[in-house]
Fold this protein.
Amino acid sequence: MKAREEIRENHKMRHNIWKKYLKIICSWILIFSICGLSLNVTEASGAGVEMERESQETVDFISDIENQETEPEILADDEQLSESEQIVESEKEPENPVEIEDSSDQITDLDAPEQMSVQSLEEELLAVAENGEEALSIIRKLISYIPQNNLEEAPLVPCNDPIDRLEDSLNEIIPDSPNRPYDMYEVIGAIIDNGEFLEIQRDYAKNIIVGFARFNGQSVGVVANQPKCYAGVLDCNASRKGARFVRFCDAFNIPIVSLVDVPGFLPGTGQEYNGVILHGAKLLYAYGEATVPKVTITLRKSYGGSHIVMSCKQLRGDMNYAWPTAEIAVMGGAGAVEVLYAREAKEQENPAQFLAEKEAEYTKLFANPYNAAKYGYIDDVIEPRNTRFRIIRALQQLQTKKLTNPAKKHGNIPL
């Protein structure tokens, strides 16, 4: 009897200790829940209601613990399960297991995140390769473009592609209508060595193209707008994609060649809510911070704020060329005359003809590369078929470029 009384007292003491611990833990949970609710007042109302409900459940749970007066039941010696029997009993599967829906958002195993990350990487490689050997070949090819560190020069390989090769197809690749698209991949393939281009993130933000290529055997990072997708405009995803690639090239001392045909930033409330200006500033910061050689070719449109973020001369661009079809202005001619001459057009007998004449006048005065070259925004207006030679010559001129940013710990990139 004395042994049973001691056992009862021990159980009672443990029970009281656990009650105190649970009360302390639940109190802290309640405090954190209330703090979290006050700090997230700008969150959705549903999240706030859910947090209040959790706080109320915590209060109710504490009350249940305080009101609990029952003592733990003590089993007889012959009814108590041994430790080994309890372990075996706990490992038994329930008779009616609960079915869990297969969903990528549900993680039911502690090791699942690591397994999923490895699996997703493998799937991503196999998505662009038919088998493991081809995936390894792609990785080797990617590494061949990257130096071992930022103090080394970009990798140089023998080149059998003539540097003065002319591509007559480029003289006719730009459509007559400024609203018709063309494929930027054709331009890239025509000017790089042997048409070999290793694109990065090809299925993400297709309105901008980033990847590695070679000019006269020298490794180069290529950034290009794609007019076939959203007319080549910059949005949140495209800005992040371009900025990340530009900073990667700058980190490894790889020159950057930019092919520009961008009418502006994508308008809309969706882009505004996602912070399109913030993400556009990332691309601007990346180009402005980069100290590697930067060569820019403006093919057609380069309007407004998008002109600034695409390695323009004002953003420390080293060599900026333009095709004769380039339009470098605040905005397009059609949009400009509608803003400038809308009131006068209503007073005309033929408003459409009046606006067409004003548009042609605006294009002649402003939306052309020669006016930009007069102000020093363009170094030269080049013939499209001679683009490859001009890029290679510019890269050779910039081989000895040494530029350092002001002494500071680090910049404050908009994140």
Remarks:
- The longest strand covers residues 294-303.
- Confidence is low (pLDDT under 50) at residues 32-51, 68-119.
- The beta strands are 198-200, 208-215, 218-225, 256-262, 294-303, 319-322, 327-329, 380-381.
- Residues 2-39 form the longest helix (38 residues).
